Amino acid sequence: MSMILYGAPLSPFVRKVRLCLQEKGLDYQLEVVMPFTPPEWYLQLNPLGRIPAFKDGDLTLADSSVICQYLEEAYPDTAHLYGSDPAQRAKVRWLEKYADYELAPLTTFTVFRNRILKPSSGHPCNEDAVQAALTEKLPPHFDYLEAQLGDRPYFLGDQLSLADLAVASQLLNMEHGGEHLDATRWPSLAAHHDRVRSLASTQSFWASEQRTTAKLVEMGKARQDAN
């Protein structure tokens, strides 16, 4: 197997690449590398130390968007995840960037980090920051994505694209953090999220992610009890 994806399973950016690989039917190996304290050898793959990184034969890449676009171009006989014309490809790239740069700071680095990661490492959850993200900062983004979907199953209509995978990857971390979309306020986005979560590609590792999250929660409780 020549393809290796480096990173942590609960990273939404690693998850996005995994979903891309699996929707394309490409075999790969996941080699776990934790963020923030990567081993020295990993810096040869990504000098920034961030995850994910990727190797395909002799080629090494970093950055989830770069990796996914490479897979789209290098394996044209697999499922197309960027649409079929320049307008669709531009829309997919825009929504992918929107998920990575607008949703991630709130769903992953605020809700998930405070509710799951910080307690598991002995640091207190900043619940005020979580509530501000949920009640003030995320709703305008959800309004925008709801409008982008309309009454269509996916952002490109009936066609699954990387835009769907990128948005869902961030919302899954919010879900790990104990929060769910309000289906009465954002019915299309909530249905979209359920649809992507139900894909065979997502389900192939969703249970494992839930077990890992549950272990982190237990670690956080144990640390709290010890104090």
Give the topology, please.
Layout: E1 3-6, H1 12-23, E2 29-31, E3 53-56, E4 59-62, H2 64-74, H3 86-120, H4 127-149, H5 162-176, H6 187-197, H7 200-226
Parallel strand pairs: 1-2
Antiparallel strand pairs: 1-3, 3-4
Helix pairs in contact: 1-2, 1-5, 3-4, 3-5, 3-7, 4-6, 5-6
General description of the model:
The protein is of the alpha+beta class and 227 residues long. It is built from seven helices and four strands; from the N terminus they run βαβββαααααα. A hairpin with a 2-residue loop joins strand 3 and strand 4. Helix 1 packs parallel to helix 2, helix 1 packs across helix 5 and helix 4 crosses helix 6. The longest helix is centred in the middle third of the chain and has 35 residues. The chain is globular, with a radius of gyration of 18 Å. The protein starts with a strand and ends with a helix.
Summarize the structure.
This protein has helices spanning about 10-25, 65-75, 85-120, 125-150, 160-175, 185-195, 200-225; strands at about 5, 30, 55, 60.
The number of strands is 4
Q: What value does the Rg take, in angstroms?
A: 18 Å
Unreliable spans are none
* Main sheet makeup: 4 strands, mixed
What is the helical fraction, as a range of percent? 55-70%
Beta-strand content estimate: 5-15%
Give the N-terminus to C-terminus distance in angstroms: 46 Å
Task: Supply the number of helical segments.
Answer: 7
Mean pLDDT: 95
Based on secondary structure, the structural category is: alpha+beta
Please tell me what the overall shape is: globular
SSE string: EHEEEHHHHHH
Reading side by side through the largest sheet, how are the strands ordered? 2-1-3-4
